[in-house]
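Thread: quick sanity check before group meeting

JM: Hey all, I'm pulling together slides for Thursday and realized we never actually wrote out the predicted structure for the chain we discussed last week. Dropping the sequence here so it's in one place. If anyone has concerns about the input, flag it before I start.
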Amino acid sequence: MITIDGKQIKLQIWDTAGQESFRSITRSYYRGAAGALLVYDITRRDTFNHLTTWLEDARQHSSSNMVIMLIGNKSDLEARREVKKEEGEALPENMV
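JM (edit): ok, ran it. Output follows.
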């Protein structure tokens, strides 16, 4: 629980590590969620490639006003980057 502007908010963060075995569980979490963080590893293209599937799932199983954020992590490993910054920034625009 966190307090924002004097109001108690229940904050839950679920890390499924993109594993298919969690797909059915995450679908039920989307239904009551106010937001979702979809995180990919900038040093592993496969994690970026799977984002479209996770994004489609989130959109399909959530309310239309749920906020979805795409986050590229491991930015400290720039030398090992496999996903260009421009690709990450363009993905949401390409998914509209």
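AS: nice. The chain has a mean pLDDT of 83. The first strand starts at residue 2 and ends at 4.
JM: adding both to the slides.
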